[in-house]
């Protein structure tokens, strides 16, 4: 079974770039335009990892992280938080309190994101193409 990764971002260009890179590497990917839809799906089927934007409609990335961490079945899922360049927030505080695995600032390299996904899931390049 492939690792299932949820991508949560309201920017379709970002979603397309990330999902193409991860699918090419052998991951199963589901995409959501906001935190609320990702949260609902996570309750039905927990992914192996979540990549979420910080700023989104209905439910932002931090609210999604809080809900994911509060539920027993999803509290240990690795989460990468995507932020826009120049958006100020305390990375260290949220990484500690919400147990965010990684923070990436847009624009970023899809290759670097893939490497972080592999590291977060304890995979090597031999396992994932």
Q: Evaluate the radius of gyration.
A: 13 Å
How would you write the strand order of the largest sheet?
2-1-3-4-5
CATH architecture: 3-Layer(aba) Sandwich
Number of helices: 5
Q: What can be said about the biggest beta sheet? A: 5 strands, parallel
Regions with little confidence, pLDDT below 50 for 5+ residues: 125-129
**What is the total number of structural domains?**
1
Q: Indicate the CATH class.
A: Alpha Beta
- Helix fraction, binned, reads 25-40%
Average pLDDT score: 88
Q: Tell me, what's the shape? A: globular
The SS-based structural class is: alpha/beta
For this structure, the CATH topology is Rossmann fold
* Number of strand elements: 5
CATH superfamily: Response regulator
Spatial gap, N to C terminus: 15 Å
Strand content: 15-25%
Order of helices and strands: EHEHEHEHEH
Structure description:
This protein has one domain: 3-Layer(aba) Sandwich (Rossmann fold), CATH 3.40.50.2300. 40% of the residues lie in helices and 20% in strands. The protein has 5 helices and 5 strands. The protein has helices at 12-24, 35-44, 61-70, 91-97, 110-120, and strands at 4-8, 28-32, 49-53, 79-84, 102-106. Strands 2-1-3-4-5 form a 5-stranded parallel β-sheet, sandwiched between helices. The longest helix has 13 residues, at 12-24. Residues 4-121 form the Response regulatory domain. This is Response regulator. Pfam families: Response_reg. InterPro entries: Bact_response_regulator (IPR050595), CheY-like_superfamily (IPR011006), Sig_transdc_resp-reg_receiver (IPR001789).
């Amino acid at each position: 079974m492939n690792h299932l990764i949820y991508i949560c971002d309201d920017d379709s260009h970002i979603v397309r770039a990330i999902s193409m890179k991860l699918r090419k590497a052998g991951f199963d990917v589901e995409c959501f335009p906001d935190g609320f839809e990702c949260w609902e799906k996570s309750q039905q089927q927990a992914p192996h990892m979540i990549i979420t934007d910080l700023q989104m409609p209905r439910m932002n990335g931090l609210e999604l992280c809080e809900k994911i961490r509060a539920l027993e079945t999803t509290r240990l899922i690795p989460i990468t938080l995507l932020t826009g360049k120049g958006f100020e927030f305390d990375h260290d505080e949220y990484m500690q309190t919400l147990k965010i695995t990684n923070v990436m600032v847009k624009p970023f390299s899809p290759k670097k994101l893939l490497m972080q996904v592999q590291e977060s899931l304890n995979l090597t390049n031999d396992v994932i193409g």
